[in-house]
């Protein structure tokens, strides 16, 4: 690794335009701020959030942006102000970047950090206030280069980088960056009480980890909803949850039946803006010709309609702009609580690592594909079209 | 640390002009330098489009909450070395006396603009007012510090009024929404330095826009799917573990 200008370049998976990614040789990342570290990436996972970027649903992406935000690796260089890390540390890095010094970081709401998003003014115009930066994302969430690269720059390294226990393999630890914290936070937002039934829309990595977290946090029963049978099978076999294939059954009807008319006490939406709108409440969009809107809040609608009176809907699928046909009436009259957010990874990461070590959370079955970074574009095809049983692809940039 | 511009060692610790005052003055100075460069190079692209006020003055207001006590925020704002750290365009600040100092601010390219800044009101931990009269872009500013509720730190409110200066300079300057942006950026920078200890930068980072060599190693999405289909759905690479 040659930091600075003298480098020979590193391989990185870049966004090339809507629906296109490619591996390029890019300049070596370098220490730009005193609190930066450079991490040699050994494993970096795909995530549903990347698909929103690749498919052009999140504004602001520029040709050449490096993707990836869930990763583990080895610290190879640290800035002069980094206090807690040493070269050689084997680490997992939080997907959200926190400064450690603002009110939000101080109150453990890391994904809302005031200071890590260099494009705050831009996000403020769209969202009122700016969230924290996230690796490998659009400028709206910082625009920092991502981890699908041989090396990555990690700003504020004292606050998002955690040493790994030697016995935790890369392909498991990589879920502690983002997917497991997101799933855990989703379940925690549900404030699960005794006897609670929790329904989870989306059987991707995030939905699976949310379902598991809901069980760990005491849910009586968890029901996972998707249309891919291999994903639903995986949830049943690995988590012991019930499943609904929304293309074969009316989700509202089945949930009503399963809960004898009460509805699930809490609903987790782990689908996001590219929800499939072929069935169920996606018909709203088809019927009104609104299929062109930038967001497809299909699963959120389903969750709000299904949810028990006074229950909680936790929305962790990613949205970026405005949505039409939102069931405000149901939300209001059923007295629901709607909660959301990017994960406060720094809050949940140590907890998740601990749960992994204790065997409460397992991830082996999630990594269906493991490949070198040079196969990145192919990996994203498998992941995007959910073919070959693909649940998650983990890249190995050093392979 | 935010890569501020070159800072003269003449920057004394005894300095009296505040960082927010300075930050804003610096920004306005930068705009002035930019306008001057434009004028020299054949002129302003746009004129007019100035906000309210018969003399064409324009007022910008921005506020941020800084998660530090008012005493600390105020003290920071009175300490000049912080200034150079916080904003990027100040070359040098020379003190004239207790209330006045001379600012040298970098403009685009190698240009520099020099102007005096005068503190006209200093109420420790509460308020700091300043005025810049003898400059291409005369302006006055005020920054106030109030305790935020619930231990959220200090509410810092900045008001800057820019007056039209030399004809031909003020037009493009005041027409620019950029002025407001830059004033806000300066405030945010102060917040970042106080809370996070540095202004994190993203520009100049590694990206595929500077690919070396600019070569595509693996092709686009969709080609692999075809390969996958052609091989009858057997995994081409990677493979289930
Ligand atoms: N809040 C966060 O910070 C955070 C973190 C990670 C991921 N995410 C988001 O979580 C979402 C899921 O991520 P993932 O990695 O699991 O992605 P994924 O693409 O693997 O999974 C999404 C799943 O949703 C299913 N789905 C689509 N439409 C549906 C519908 N109408 N009803 C039910 N299921 C439907 C898909 O079939 C797919 O299995 C994405 O929006 C992603 O951006 C959020
Ligand atoms: Zn993710
Ligand atoms: Zn912060």
Automatic annotation (TrEMBL), chain A:
Protein name per Swiss-Prot or TrEMBL: Glutathione-dependent formaldehyde dehydrogenase
Record-annotated Alcohol dehydrogenase-like N-terminal domain positions: 35-158
UniProt xrefs under PROSITE patterns: ADH_ZINC
Keywords: Metal-binding, Oxidoreductase, Zinc
GO molecular function terms listed in the Swiss-Prot or TrEMBL record: oxidoreductase activity; zinc ion binding
Family statement drawn from the similarity comment of this UniProt entry: Belongs to the zinc-containing alcohol dehydrogenase family.
Cofactor(s), by name: Zn(2+)
InterPro entries: ADH-like_C, ADH-like_N, ADH_Zn_CS, GroES-like_sf, NAD(P)-bd_dom_sf
UniProt source species: Planosporangium flavigriseum
Pfam families in alphabetical order: ADH_N, ADH_zinc_N
Span of domain Alcohol dehydrogenase-like C-terminal: 205-275
From TrEMBL, chain B:
UniProt xrefs under Pfam families: Polyketide_cyc2 (PF10604)
InterPro entries on file: Polyketide_cyclase/dehydratase (IPR019587), START-like_dom_sf (IPR023393)
Source organism, top-level taxon: Bacteria
UniProt-listed Gene3D superfamilies: 3.30.530.20
Protein name: Polyketide cyclase / dehydrase and lipid transport
UniProt organism field: Planosporangium flavigriseum
UniProt lineage: Bacteria, Bacillati, Actinomycetota, Actinomycetes, Micromonosporales
């Amino acid at each position: 690794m040659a930091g600075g200008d003298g480098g020979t370049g590193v391989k990185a998976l870049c966004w090339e335009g809507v629906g296109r990614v490619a591996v390029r040789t890019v300049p070596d990342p370098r220490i730009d701020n005193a609190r930066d570290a450079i991490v040699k990436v050994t494993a970096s996972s795909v995530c549903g959030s990347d698909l929103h970027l690749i498919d052009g649903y999140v504004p602001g992406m520029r040709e050449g942006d490096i993707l990836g935000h869930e990763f583990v690796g080895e610290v190879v260089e640290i800035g002069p102000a980094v206090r807690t890390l040493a070269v050689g540390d084997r680490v997992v890095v939080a997907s959200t970047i926190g400064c450690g010094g603002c009110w939000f970081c101080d109150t453990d709401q890391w994904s809302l950090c005031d200071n890590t998003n260099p494009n705050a003014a831009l996000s403020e115009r769209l969202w009122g206030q700016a969230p924290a930066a996230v690796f490998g994302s659009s400028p709206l969430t910082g625009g920092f280069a991502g981890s699908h690269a041989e090396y990555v720059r990690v700003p504020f390294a004292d606050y998002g980088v955690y040493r790994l226990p030697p016995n935790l393999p890369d392909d498991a630890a990589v879920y502690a960056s983002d997917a497991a914290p997101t799933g855990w936070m989703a379940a925690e937002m549900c404030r699960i009480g005794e006897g609670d039934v929790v329904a989870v829309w989306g059987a991707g990595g995030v939905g699976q980890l949310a379902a598991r977290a809901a069980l760990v946090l005491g849910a009586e029963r968890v029901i996972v909803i998707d249309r891919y049978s291999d994903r639903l099978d995986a949830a049943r076999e690995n988590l012991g949850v019930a499943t609904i294939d929304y293309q074969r059954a009316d989700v509202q009807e089945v949930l009503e039946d399963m809960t004898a008319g009460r509805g699930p006490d809490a609903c987790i939406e782990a689908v996001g803006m590219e929800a499939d709108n072929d069935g169920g409440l996606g018909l709203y969009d088809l019927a009104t010709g609104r299929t062109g809107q930038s967001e497809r809040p299909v699963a959120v609608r389903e969750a709000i309609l299904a949810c028990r009176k006074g229950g909680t809907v936790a929305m962790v699928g990613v949205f970026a702009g405005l949505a039409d046909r939102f069931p405000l009436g149901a939300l209001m009259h059923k007295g629901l609580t709607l909660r959301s957010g990017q994960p406060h990874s720094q809050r949940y990461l140590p907890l998740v690592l601990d749960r992994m070590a204790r065997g409460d959370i397992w991830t082996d079955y999630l990594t269906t594909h493991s490949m070198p970074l040079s196969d990145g574009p192919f990996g994203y095809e498998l992941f995007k079209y959910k073919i070959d049983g693909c649940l998650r692809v983990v890249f190995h940039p050093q392979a | 640390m935010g890569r501020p511009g070159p800072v003269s060692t003449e920057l004394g610790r005894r300095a009296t002009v505040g960082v927010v005052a300075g930050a804003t003055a610096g920004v306005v100075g930068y705009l002035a330098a930019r306008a001057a460069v434009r004028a020299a190079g054949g002129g302003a692209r746009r004129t007019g489009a100035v906000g309210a006020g018969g003399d064409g003055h324009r007022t910008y207001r921005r506020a941020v909450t800084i998660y530090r006590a008012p005493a600390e925020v105020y003290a920071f704002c009175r300490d000049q070395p912080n200034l150079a750290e916080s904003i990027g365009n100040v070359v040098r600040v020379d003190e004239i006396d207790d209330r006045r100092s001379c600012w040298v601010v970098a403009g685009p390219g190698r240009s520099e603009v020099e102007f005096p800044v005068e503190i006209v009101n200093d109420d420790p931990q509460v308020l700091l007012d300043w005025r810049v009269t003898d400059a291409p872009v005369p302006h006055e500013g005020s920054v106030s510090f109030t305790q935020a509720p619930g231990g959220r730190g200090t509410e810092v409110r900045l008001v800057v009024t820019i007056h039209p200066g030399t004809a031909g300079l003020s037009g493009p300057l005041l027409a620019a929404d950029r002025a407001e942006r830059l004033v806000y950026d300066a405030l945010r920078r102060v917040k970042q330095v106080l809370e996070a200890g540095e202004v994190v930068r993203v520009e100049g980072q590694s990206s595929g826009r500077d690919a070396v060599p600019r070569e595509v190693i693996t092709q686009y999405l969709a080609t692999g799917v075809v390969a996958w289909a052609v091989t009858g759905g057997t995994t081409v690479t990677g493979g289930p573990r």
